[in-house]
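Technical annex, item 7. During the second reporting period the consortium partners agreed on a shared format for inverse folding records so that results from different sites could be compared directly. Each record opens with the tokenized structure and is followed by the designed sequence. A conforming record, contributed by the partner at site C, is shown below for reference.
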């Protein structure tokens, strides 16, 4: 897929995950479905965006991005089960996403 299309898919999916996380408080029955659709979109975007270079640090950071997207997919499972562990997985995934979002451009520029 085109890199631009993958970015758009990721941003829309991340917005759906954020919206579903906020709507979870209302106990709306469609919230887990919105979260799962967003999580699957994020995972698809991250799994399709592979690093092809030789830099070991960038390879590690891209794997961390992929792992964080898979954590969000696991969080959607816990959201369907009505267990509160989904929040912990989402928090860890958000920290990993933030870390990689800061370091990948910095290392790529070097």
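Designed sequence (site C submission):
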């Amino acid at each position: 897929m085109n890199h631009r299309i993958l970015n758009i898919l990721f941003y829309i999916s991340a917005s759906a995950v954020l919206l579903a996380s906020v709507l979870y408080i209302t106990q709306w029955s469609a919230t887990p479905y919105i979260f799962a659709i967003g999580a699957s979109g994020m995972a698809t975007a991250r799994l399709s965006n592979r690093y092809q270079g030789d830099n070991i640090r960038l390879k590690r950071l891209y794997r961390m991005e992929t792992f964080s997207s898979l954590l969000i997919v696991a969080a959607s499972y816990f959201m369907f089960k009505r267990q509160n562990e989904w929040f912990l997985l989402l928090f860890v995934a958000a920290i990993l996403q933030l870390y990689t979002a800061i370091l990948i451009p910095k290392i790529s520029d070097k």
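Residues 33 and 80 are 8 Å apart (CA to CA). The chain has one domain: 3-109. All partners now use this format for quarterly exchanges.
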